[in-house]
Amino acid sequence: MTRARSLLWSPVLAVLLVLGIGGTALGSGHVANPPLTASGSAADSAAAITGTAADTPGCGKNPTLRSGNHTIQSGGKSRSFILRIPDGYDPNHPYRLVFGFHWLGATSTDVDTGRTVETGTWAYYGLQRLANNSTIFVAPQGLNNGWANTGGEDITFVDDMIRLLDAELCIDTTQRFALGFSYGAAMSYSLACSRATVFRAVAVQNGGQLSGCSGGNQPIAYLGVHGIRDTVLNISGGRTMRDRFVRNNGCTPQNAPEPAQGSLTHRVTTYSGCAEGYPVAWAAFDEGHIAAPQDGAPGDSGSRTWLPQEVWKFFTQFETSEPGPDPDPDPEPEPEPSTCEVTASVNAWNTGLTANLTLTNTGTAPVDGWSLAFTLPGGQNIVSGWNADYSPTSGRVTARSTSHNATIAPGASVRIGFQATHTGDTAAPASYALNGTACDSA
Fold it and tell me: Once rounded to an integer, what is the mean pLDDT over residues 19-23?
């Protein structure tokens, strides 16, 4: 991102400094938007907490929307966005929905391609490659390449996009997420304030209160990320934004630890005492106003940044399960062991890789509490993971279910994954076994 940023960062920095200084006054130009009527209900909120998928009217329909650029009318203006539908889209499966908002002076294409940091690898802030076709992505385009949200028009734009997507696509209404960097973070924060019952969680990176905060009194799962040496939008503003949701979510206040200047490291703090289903996490890193920080080196890196894994782990902790067939009310004392299938995909670079595993219950009985054993190729060592607990970190590894994905209905799947280092062998794991029973590999 260094070369791309140098072409536009001076004027962008000047504008953001003015907005950052006047952030509170800027809010006077924003008005409260009426909430969505077709979704974001109390029932959806309850479903989100209990981990039950809630479908949209688009489920079961042959969609007319396709991946690519789209234009709609919103608030009397033509507004555009880029839509990415997963390969092999299943109209009967409710999908996670992620909005990625661009920074000031950027475009929806920058988010969609990841080209300002690393094309493809950093698409949708690095989340698209981790999603492995499990998620619908949207990159909206801001007016004048920003998110001033004058009169609440950008919130209305999001409402209108959601209505269209809900009508055409099969989306889990308890699995809507928003993230962005800089001005895109400000827009995500504004959604956290005014659409806390529509979105499940937000990730706010190096943001400021630039797009308003209508409401701002309801809980929402919140991940704040900020560079301790940010001279464009100071970290003190990021802490203030975070602390609003520490209060809203009933978390225990604390001064979250942050890395020392010059360490080129990051520290992640998960707050304690939060209301069930409403966590708050804070990731501080030793760098400035950058979008893809890495440990041990300055500047952006699409392949070495730790941030996409942290955001993905935060978002996917809320993964819901589709209702499956009711288990036999009078099961046999010793039911047949469940059979299983594992599909793996690996994305590798230099000395690192990420692996995404899809575990499918191909048996006829639910799996209630699971452990998936597999063998890593020599030289691979897991450094972090999501949607499961991993032990040990090399050799024969066992991934154990967490509270939100412990049950796999017949025909249903769970998606887990990890980041690892390697010494040259980047092959996928092998010899899978679910609760001691060998699995097929697809």
Answer: 40
Count of beta carbons in the 10 Å neighbourhood of residue 120: 12
- Which homologous superfamily does the CATH classification assign to the domain defined by 68-317? Alpha/Beta hydrolase fold, catalytic domain (3.40.50.1820)
Q: What gap in Å lies between CA 314 and CA 80, rounded to an integer?
A: 28
Beta-carbon contacts of 144 under 8 Å, excluding residues fewer than 6 positions away, are: none
Paired with 179 in beta bridges are 100, 203
What's the CA gap between 286 and 277, in Å, rounded? 29
Of 398, 405, 399, 410, the closest CA to residue 340 belongs to 410
Q: In the chain, count of helices (H) and strands (E)?
A: 9, 21
What token pair was written down for 214?
């209508």
The residue ranges of every structural domain in the chain are: 68-317, 340-441
Q: Chain-centre distance of CA 204, in angstroms?
A: 11
CB 1 within 8 A of CB 120: no
Q: Is the pLDDT of residue 7 over 90?
A: no
Residues 6+ apart with CB under 8 A from 9: none
Average pLDDT over the chain, rounded to whole?
Answer: 87
Q: What is the pLDDT of residues 352-377, one digit of tens each?
A: 999 999 999 998 888 988 999 999 99
Q: Residue 192 class from Cβ within 10 Å (0-12 exposed, 13-18 middle, 19+ buried)? A: buried
Q: How far apart are CA 59 and CA 115, in angstroms?
A: 33
DSSP SS3 for 268 = strand
Fold classification of 340-441 (topology level): Immunoglobulin-like (2.60.40)
- Please tell me the least confidently modeled range out of 110-114, 205-209, 326-330: 326-330
Whole-angstrom distance, CA of residue 345 vs CA of residue 356: 5
**Least confident interval from 47-61, 329-343, 365-379:** 329-343
